[in-house]
Amino acid sequence: MASVSQSPVNLAGSLSSATSASDLLRSSIFGVNGVPLQTFGNGHVRPWRKGLNIVAKVRKVQKHEYPWPQDPDPNVKGGVLSHLSSFKPLKEKPKPVTLEFEKPLMDLQKKITDVQKMANETGLDFSDQIISLENKYQQALKDIYTHLTPIQRVDIARHPNRPTFLDHFIELHGDRAGYDDPAIVTGIGTIDGRRFMFVGHQKGRNTKENIQRNFGMPTPHGHRKILRMMRYADHHGFPIIIFIDTPGAFADLKSEEIGQGESIAQNLWTMFGLKVPIVSIVLGEGGSGGALAICCANKLLMLENAVLYVASPEACAAILWKTSKASTKAAEKLKITANDTRKLQISDGIIAEPLGGAHADPHWTSQQIKKAILESMDELQKMGTEELLRQRTLKYRRIGRFQEGLPVDPEKKVNMKRKEPKPGLISDKVLQGEVNKLKEQIMKAKELSSTDMDQNVLTEKLKREISYEMSEAAKALGIEEKLSKMREGFAKAENKPLTSYQIKNLENLKNEFNENLATAPNYGRLKYKLSLLKEITEARIFAEKYLKTLPLKAKVNEKFKEVLEKSTLKQKIENLKVEVEKAGASSFEEFDQELKEKVIEVREEVESEFVKALESSGVHVTSKFGQRSMLVFKAKVDELNVETNQMIQDVIESTPDVRNEVEMLKLEVVKNESAPSKESKEKIEVLQQHIKEGVADVMSSAAVKEKYQRL
């Protein structure tokens, strides 16, 4: 058909005259130029002999300014491109969020802050204590983050302060089909001068952003937006880098109606045919179809604490165990951590995170991601197109492939057995749990022999842990090297007895180790494990004594009931109760002297009868209670103690020298609470002696001496 350049156009309905340049139809279709494409809606074109008649229905839509305002300010700070993203990196530092298992770290941080504050207020030097606490903090941080459970890694992957895609990126918008999904971010960028297409999920960094970003859960529009950008990258030869961080695709009714499953499938189909290298990186959560839609890559990498799953641990627990409280168990069974997916050959590499997680040091984490991207791209860009496509296909063909019926090598059979973790790798929490469980078994056991095996196993485990901590302490203190040299000397001597010189050196080394042990960086863990071993021993001794006393206890209780049932004593006790009620006193100290005498008299009579009953049944009583004035005497002793303490306090308050020495003593004790040095101990002893001498006059006063002699 020939082009008609000036054909009349008839439109049914009214059109808005305010049409932006980006809305205009640029090409000459049926000879029509400059007609807004979106205004035609559900229209149709009918050719006429003398011209062209176009009929269109106008669809009313809500006006909005996203992503561009109607009148963008060209002088806006950061340039007009700043309108492209309403989610710029936060200017203020995000509020710290403490996970449940991180609370011991917060306690140590508080102690460090308190000591620093005390140092600033008093002007004293607490640098040794601060360094010691900081070492403890670093050790605790290392212990926690090197022994994370799967569910703890899930918590870290969901951390609200975890770095997101837009912290380093300005996005391009729209799927060119009428919608822009804010949960998906796309755009072109460079790394070290190399151009890439970036695609990824975007969660919010606070509640408002999370709502606007739909918590990083994409709709079909988001998947089609990704598809458009990937085709664009394929056309122009840009390698694709994908960042995954989503709980899953948005599963509302509307998304299902407009083809959520179809959009995911379309992305999978297309990605297997793209001729450019693709690298996918799981930043936090990689959940269900939302992650699957963009993870069909040549290389799938995961941050150390990221997770990749088909169903969240909570959902899995609700399905299998009918309660989301079993999420910890579900997380272990699902094999969703970076280490698990690497072993199963689902992911191709793990990107290290700093201690404390990626949110502890986002900049360092970004550098590790950059390094991993460039290494992967260098490897993939050496491949030809056919090899690249084949590698991508085979990667996913291999997943889940197992061959049944093959005999297992004896070596593999051995490796399949559960091995005890190496010393130093078992967390304190696990050890404490095992000790508590054993103590409970010991206390409940009717015969202690039934717990012997469990006790021996746990005792051996603790001894290995203590031995390991001792070795680490020796290394840290430089004792290990000296000991190795001594061993070499002993080996050369073969079966000859040790000389006095060698024995002396050995004793000196032992003394040196004992003196400096408290300064070792792992002294806290060593002390803790020794205390656990002591707890087991004490629980065993207590249980043995307790079981021995059970028959005697039963006999004693039986005799005591018999004594109280005697008619004469029973009547006296009832009468005494009536008198106490009449007096209205709530404690022995409030009784008048006559009532106190009656209580003591009845008590002594009960005790006397009780002792007679026990001795008549063959139970020997080593000491008898019949001290009539014991309660009165105790009250007088307490009264004298209160009076003496008050006099000492008065002396301290009225004597500046003594008061200053007391304050210095308090500071010295606080300063050297963890590991006092020899000099500190001597200083504390001197201060204590001076204070004692200062208050000695109080104890020698005539009034106090007289009361003491009377007692």
Automatic annotation (TrEMBL):
The lineage of its organism: Eukaryota, Viridiplantae, Streptophyta, Embryophyta, Tracheophyta. It catalyses: N(6)-carboxybiotinyl-L-lysyl-[protein] + acetyl-CoA = N(6)-biotinyl-L-lysyl-[protein] + malonyl-CoA. Residues 132-379 form the CoA carboxyltransferase C-terminal domain. This is acetyl-CoA carboxytransferase. One of its GO terms (molecular function) is acetyl-CoA carboxylase activity. Pfam families: ACCA. GO terms for cellular component: acetyl-CoA carboxylase complex. PROSITE patterns: COA_CT_CTER (PS50989). SUPFAM superfamilies: ClpP/crotonase. GO terms for biological process: fatty acid biosynthetic process. Its EC number is 2.1.3.15. Keywords: ATP-binding, Fatty acid biosynthesis, Fatty acid metabolism, Lipid biosynthesis, Lipid metabolism, Nucleotide-binding, Transferase. Pathway: Lipid metabolism; malonyl-CoA biosynthesis; malonyl-CoA from acetyl-CoA: step 1/1. It comes from the Eukaryota. It comes from Ambrosia artemisiifolia. It is an enzyme of class 2 (transferase).
